[in-house]
Amino acid sequence: MVWGGISTRLRTHLYHVVGNLTGVRYQNEILQPLVVSDLQAIGPRAILQDENAPPHRSAAVNTFIQQTRVNRMRWPANSPDLNPIEHMWDELCRRVQQHHPPPANLGQLLQWLQQQWNGVPRAFICNVIHSMRQRCVECLAHNGGHTRY
Q1: Are 42 and 9 in contact (CB under 8 A)?
Q2: Which of 46, 55, 56, 84 sits CB 3.0–4.6 Å from 50 for a disulfide?
Q3: Residues in domain Tc1-like transposase DDE (predicted)?
């Protein structure tokens, strides 16, 4: 599993998650070294958009988020996944499927994924993020059901 973060200004490096991601690991390996400094660089209006995965909502992570004064988007339980990062994962998946020959080992795969991640045009990321308002409007119009996104 890899983890990555995007914004209209920045993207994190991909982080290879080995084993199970717990709340403590999410805080120590991802939030603290990768996310907080990027959010602070963006400014006081930056918002962390994670999801309701158990590591993201652990007591340790909630305390850390409050202590670091990170603005976090609230997600209702059982909400549709509207996170723009899903489009980045789809793009990476398409690139993996088109790559011939496939990477020979995990190290090559991780290196190649990082190159592809860095190669996704910023305009693609901005378009996905800027579509959030319309995504939410369509989601509400469809009572949380399927949308074109």
Answers
A1: yes
A2: 56
A3: 28-100
